[in-house]
Structures are given as C-alpha cells and as structure tokens.
Amino acid sequence: MKNTKQLTIILAITLAIYAPVLYGLRDAFIDDKGFLTIDYIVGTLSKPHIINSLKFTFSQALLSALIASTIGSLAAFSLLFIGTRGARLLRSISIVSFMAPPMVVVTGFTALFGNNGLLSTVIPFLKILGEGFWAIIAAHVFYNIPLAINFVYASLVSMPKEIIDSINMFGFGKIGYVARKIIVPYILPAYLSAFTLSFIYCFTSFAIPLSLGGVEYSTLEVYIYYYYKILFNPHGAASIAFIQYMILSTIVFLFIVYHGKTYAAPVGYRHYRFIIKNRFYRILLNIFIVLVFLYLVTPLTAISYHAFYNPYTKSFSLSGFHRVLDPSYDPGLGVGTGLVYVNTFYYAFMTAVFSITLSSIIVILGNKYIDFLYASLLAVSPLTMSLGLMRLYGSLVPNQILIVLAHVIAALPLTTRIIRVGFERVGRKYIEAAYMLKEKGLPLYLRVVFPLMKPAYLVAISLALVVSLGEFSATYFISTTQTITLGIAIYRYRGLRDWQASASAALLLLILTTTILLSLSRKIERWL
Questions:
Q1: Among 76, 123, 127, 139, which residue's CB has the most CB atoms within a 10 Å radius?
Q2: How far is the C-alpha of 492 from the C-alpha of 90, rounded, in Å?
Q3: What pLDDT shows up at residue 465?
Q4: Of 243, 238, 219, the residue nearest 227 (C-alpha)
Q5: Which carries the bigger pLDDT value, residue 434 or residue 42?
Q6: Residue 454 three-state SS
Q7: How confident is residue 55, by pLDDT bands cut at 50, 70 and 90?
C-alpha cells in the first residue's frame, strides 16, 4: 500500500511536469479542426531557412562542445600540477563562470570584443568575437569550459593513490605515454559526459544567438520564439520544438549513459599532485592554465569598466547606476525599475522553495532510476517548456506563475541530482538506528535525515536561486511588461543602445549571483 501511494505521488508530479511539454508539442500533429496530421512537420522541414537553422544549430553546438570539452579537460589535468589552494580557487572561479546569467555573459563579450570593447579597440581583429558566428562559439566555449573542468577534475582525483604514486615515480619523464595509456582511458567517460551536456546546452542556447548572432545565425530555439511570438504560428513553433526535442532526446540518452560511467570524487577527496621534472612542460602547463582562467574571468571583469564608462561621451560617470537603481518609472522598460527587482527576487525565492520541495519528494519517494526521468528534462528546451505552459495554462494562470513554473522545471534536474547525492551520503546506520527508536515517515526525515543533509540543501537552494536569477529564455518568452526581470532589463537596455545602463544592470546581477556561489563554493565543488 505504501509503495502504491509513493508511486501515485511520483506519477502525479511527473504528469504535472510533462503535461505542458506534451500539450505544447501536440500542435505539431493536431490541426485546427482536431484532426491528426503530419503536414506541419513536413512543411517545416521543407522550409530552407529551417534546414539552414538546423544545420547551423547542430554545427555550432558540435564545434562549441568539442572546443570547450577539450580545453576544459586539459585545464583539469593541469590543475593537478598546482597545489590544493590554487586548484580550489580556480575551480571556484570556473563555477562562477558556468553559472553566470546569459545576459551577463553577453554584456561581458560586448564590453570586451564589441565595437567599443576594451580589447577590440586595441586589436580590431578581435571584433569577430563580439558579434556573429565566432562570437556565438566563443561565448558557448566560455560557458562550457567549466563543465569539463569539474567533470574531468572529479574523475582525476578519484584515481587510486597507487596509480598516482606510480605515475609520479616512473612516469614523470614520459608524460605522453602516461596520458595516452592511463589518464585518457580513465577520464574518457567524464570527457564524453561533459561533451554531450555541453552539446545540449549549446543546442538549446537562446540568449547568446539572439543577442550576439543576429538573424543570420538563428538557432532552432530562436525560431521557436519567432514563429510563436512574431508570426503567431503555434503549429510551426510546435513543429520546430518537436524536431529539436527528438534530436535532444538522443543526446540526453548518451549523456545519461556516459555520466553513469563517470568516476565521481569521493567524500573528503584528496587533491593528488602529478610531478613533472621537465621544466618546459611545467612552464607550458602553467601558461595554459593562466590563459584559460583569464578567458573565464576577463569578460566578466570587463563589465565593471563599461558600467562606469560612457562610450558616447567618452567619460566616466554613475549615470548607468542612477538609471537602473532609480525605482521610478523608466520609459525604456515601460515600468518602474523597482518592479524589476521585486519580480526578480520573487521568482528566485519561489523557484528555490518549489524546486527544493519537489526534489525532496522525488528523492525520498523515488530512486535513482526515477531521477533519470527528471534528467531527461534536459531534452526539453526552455522555449519548448514555455510554449507548452503558454498553450496549456496561458488563459488560466497569470504570467508570473507561469514564469515561476518554468524556472522550477529548469532548476529541477540540478536540485534533484544534488539532493539525491546528499541523501545517498547519509549513513545507513543512522537511519536504521532511528527505525529502532520507532522513528518513521516525516519525523524520521526531519529529525535524522534533514540535519545530515544540510550541506546538500544549502547547495541546492543556492543553485536554484542562481538558475532563477539568470534564467532568460523562458522568462523572455512568457514575459509581459509587468513581469520583467533584471535579465530582461539588460536586454532592453541593449536594444536602446544604452550600453552603460546595460552594463550596470549586468554588474549588479553578476555581483548577486557571484556572492551566492562563492559563499558556498567549497560545498558546491563536492556536488558538481
């Protein structure tokens, strides 16, 4: 009976989450008269601009994931040649870069490589990283290098001490042989896991192609928005979303397979150090690791400069902050700026509450196989989910609630994984002892399990907050004037060519997310 109730609850949650997805995709197969048809799918695939977009989406995701995973893996390997403190600092920086809000990254690349960028004014050739194809690739690589660093680093530090000692004793003069015969086979699942997840993120990217690519470099995600919001063609939008979903489902399956074979860093892992006596190799690796982390830091720090510098008057001022911090009505946004902050914090708070609650129920009542079902949400892009939410609940539920639901679903795969890891790390002996003392059900969880899982909950809550604060795609799709967030405000300031206000808003959002991440960076490392 108990198992039946648990299964019923899990099924109810799953149906509630997947119902909008299925309802949104049904428009690809059901015409306005309610008849089944494949004409919309066939018609969509016959359009040259959709085929070109599909090719571009696939190629940019493949190239971005390949570059990011390779650089990140080499960087993770290089971390093992520096001390524990240095590796911890660099990993903390990488987490900040990985979780940076999309519009913050867009602002950073514009500040660094745009027409008035800090580097592009000195080296004009670098303007190709400020707009167009290579700007999209560069921004996606920026985002996904940290993913590979953390996956591969966790795999490396899980290597048995005997292997590390043997490498240090006999292999320091044969780094090529050691890498080829020992290191690469050991980290290959982690590399493939990072590659497939990077591919998924790049394939479903919206803010970066929209802001840095323009019409010529529109991804499928951009076309979903264009067909539904501009052309008012839900059948076309659903057809594109279905094509994208089918491709991503295959990639997500590969990610689950590869990630299941990835070695995870043990609790209280030790930072092993590889020893290389060849001075040339040591210098080369040090230069490489410095360049990688400069690449991860420089776009974010460039935002600070442009937040104070006005490119039109060529002078420094606080006018950008005056605009974004003035709570009164802003004609460029159409609302008072104060409402922007109220919405931003409200969505973040509600996302943290609901995602943690749902993740806890899923973990307690389900098992790791149920978790795979929620990991498959990675195949549902933010705009596909938003499309479904709008089609199913748009006339019944306020947009503020729809945005919260979209943020919760975006955070759920991450929070569920973290709470699952925390739950499995709770010693079974404590639970058995509680059973002997007649503790069960909710009291058992609140008195025994929850106190032992506090670090996992802190990490899950912080990441849920950061996901919501930085979420742009679903928010922009669902948003109205009254539901605008700080991320949307950054985009609108960019549209007005008020670069200083855009950079000021981006800097505030960056400070907020960085504070949350760095305050728990030591704990976050154990779960990412």
A1: 76
A2: 33
A3: 93
A4: 238
A5: 42
A6: helix
A7: very high
Cα–Cα distance for residue pair 207/507, rounded to 1 Å: 17
Structure tokens at 169: 């004793």
- Does the pLDDT value for residue 130 go beyond 70? yes
Q: Which residues contact 305 (CB under 8 A, 6 or more apart)?
A: 111, 118
CATH node for 2-524: 1.10.3720.10
Q: What is the pTM (predicted TM-score) of this model?
A: 0.88
- What percentage of residues in the chain have a pLDDT greater than 70? 82
As a whole number of Å, the CA-based R_g of the chain is: 24
Spatial CB neighbours of 365, under 8 Å, sequence gap ≥ 6: 6, 9, 10
Torsion of CA 211, 193, 78, 467, to 10 degrees: 40
Q: Which residues pair with 36 in a beta bridge?
A: 30
- Please report which helix (H) or strand (E) contains residue 335, including its range: strand 335-336
Q: How far apart are CA 260 and CA 190, in angstroms?
A: 9
Residue 524 CA to residue 55 CA, distance in Å, equals 36
Domain boundaries, the chain: 2-524
- The structure tokens listed for 501 are 């206000």
| Cα–Cα dist 69/179, whole Å | 16
Q: Read off the amino acid at residue 27.
A: D
CA–chain centroid gap for 283, Å, is 33
Given a cut of 50, is residue 1 above it in pLDDT? no
Q: Distance between alpha carbon 28 and the CA centroid of its chain, in Å?
A: 28
Q: Per-residue pLDDT averaged across 149-173, rounded?
A: 72
Give the separation between CA 68 and CA 145, rounded to whole angstroms. Answer: 5
CA angle 311/317/322 to nearest 5° reads 110
Closest to 41 in 3D by CA, of 180, 318, 236: 236
